[in-house]
Amino acid sequence: LQEPSLYSIKAIAILDNDGNRLLAKYYDETFPTVKEQKAFEKNLFNKTHRANAEIIMFEGLTCVYKSNVDLFFYVVGSSMENELILANVLNAFYDSISQILRKNVEKRALLDNLDAVFLAVDELCDGGIVLEADSNSIVQKVAIRNEDIPLGEQTMAQV
User: Fold this and answer.
1) How many C-beta atoms surround the C-beta of residue 131 within 10 A?
2) Nearest to 141 by CA among 131, 151, 149
3) Which of 50, 56, 102 is nearest to 75 (CA)?
4) What are phi and psi of 116, to 5 degrees?
5) Where is the AP complex mu/sigma subunit domain (predicted)?
6) Nearest Cα to 61, choosing from 12, 22, 6?
7) 33-88 tens-digit pLDDT
8) Cβ contacts of residue 144 below 8 Å, gap of 6+?
9) Domain 11-153 CATH assignment equals 3.40.1190.10
């Protein structure tokens, strides 16, 4: 039996529909090199991109995932980790990204707002410890002020 630990997240990643990394944060030494991380991501993508499930046991890890248009969102924990906690983190992650991108969750919008997405990941999890599981709180902390939005992208109400 494993001792309870706050360190529940091993990795958070977003891959495109070709399995290429758009964002990935690893929180322990399970995959110490970038080469090993990318190999894991490629294998994980190959295993999950056609599957309809939301959870998979892969290489001794519990992986929960969600896909949307051309993006795949992954949260990875140990094999002993509670799947409900991982699923809750994934849902908070996805919902906060959806709010940040104004429901336009696709590769181009994500790349245009990558700074806010990285901030959201940092608000969600730090060093493998879940800090926040409420998407509204994450979005408030990351909040993009109107001054930060280019004038051409603002609506009439924002101007």
Assistant:
1) 13
2) 131
3) 56
4) -70, -35
5) 9-147
6) 12
7) 999 999 999 999 999 988 878 999 999 999 999 998 889 999 999 988 889 999 99
8) 100, 113, 116
9) no
User: Are 28 and 125 a contacting pair, CB within 8 Å?
Assistant: no
- pTM: predicted TM-score of the whole model, two decimal places: 0.86
Q: What would the two tokens of residue 98 be?
A: 């959806």
Read off the pLDDT of residues 92-122 as tens digits, 9 standing for 90 and up. 999 999 999 888 888 999 999 999 999 999 9
Residue type, 108: R
| Domain locations in the chain as residue ranges | 11-153
70 closest CA partner among 13, 108, 37, 23: 108
Q: Report residue 69 as tokens.
A: 């248009």
